[in-house]
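Memo to structure team: turn this sequence into structure tokens by end of day. - J.P.
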Amino acid sequence: MSRLFAFPALCLLMASVATYAAPPKPATSAPAPVPKERSVSTQHSVTIDGRTIHYTATAGTILLRGKDNQPIGSMFYVAYTEDGVRNRADRPVTFLYNGGPGASSNWLTMSGLGPYRVRLVNGAATPPAPYSVVPSHQSILNDTDLVFVDAMGTGFSHLVGKGTGKMFWGVDQDVRSFGQFIQRYLTQNDRWNSPLFLYGESYGTTRSAGLALYLQNQGIAVNGVILQSSILNYFDWTPGSDNKYIFTLPTFAALAWYHNKLPDKPASLPPFVQQVREFADGPYAQALRPGNQLPKDQLDAMAQKLHQLIGLPVGYLERANLRVTSSEFRKELMLPEREQLGRYDGRYVGADGNAISATPDSDPSNQISPALNQGYLWYVFHVLKWKTNRAYVGLNFEAYKTWDWHHRMPDSRRKQPLPDVAADLAAAMRKNPYLQVLSENGYFDLATPFHATEFDLSHITLSPALQKHIHFAYFYSGHPIYINPDALKAMHQVLDRFYSDTLKDDAKGAAN
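Reply from structure team:
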């Protein structure tokens, strides 16, 4: 795999790694059988912010159709809808999904945003089964109905009829499939006049940005888009650019702070991170610009300063020519302890298999994967009462390997070789001036560093008034922010305000 795709694709994919192989290829070219749409509903209740919410949980499938109106795919979803709501126009509905590409949405489903979650050990490995699946009192079911969706070829979503992977496995193809799913769900459940929100994690943020514009062009306005741990402009990570070093420096500093590796550790993280942001965009960026031509005395001085900010040895920084990748940082910071950091959440550390190699041999933060995968399947079968003979596909390697990264930019006839969906999001905001965007970021996320997201969202073509519709929130966690219980509680409060403020602004605009 080329260095070009190593960051944007694989690192996001692994956020939803399951213990199941990709689905077997059919033995013949005969069309896959077309199943009927089906669903099963159960009744539950959960207490959130002191209020008991009675709700219906529905696990089901929706058929997607091709150009000839014949079924080509069956998408699986789990929906939670509050009971007793007289007017559905007063009740938002939010569609949620993980990323990959090629990953199912079991992590988000069991994260605590829904009414159940898997209890995890915070910042360390979770012991094997039996896992504790418990009600989530930090769910956002108090704000909105929730529909968690598995992308085609993941989870229980699968091809049917004459459907092929090429119809779904690409940036624009994926957006179209989710757009069709949302429209069919709104029709089947009489939700066309409900406020509509999109919530994507990881590659799901790529999907959401493109989907907001796609739906707008289909005559469907989105009220709000929530981006958790974003990857928006894949050109940021191309070889030959120093941007990746600038974007990761504040995250390196946050992790050095967390692991007590700073020579003079500041008392508070946020002001320290702001200091490193300014340094990364200013003196550090200027030092990188000359490349190998930076004078030796300036190289030495910069290495000394970086040592103060990110904790790596001065000699190491000099040998690296001031340029350290995320993998190298994960290896070097805890090298004296013979431990390596997690990529998705750098708070996690694990035993180092080879203390003289340049990069880690694993990701300790993936230790949470079995708990979320096994806990999810137990929950689906025993609580939601879903019955199927299909294998669950947590990670579809075939989708990932064959993914079409080309993307048609807004108002362009040509496709770019990599997507910059920040431009799609900006176009959606210009066409729908009420659209609000919330960017949620983990300080300790090395897969999608928060400073890259800040750069992308501040460099899109918006008026000052529309730029104010983009809001940022930061949490003491990593890529899957919700695995830290304190961060999950803080997320709940941030999301409460986001939904409330968005709906108030919309109502105020409607009254004018």
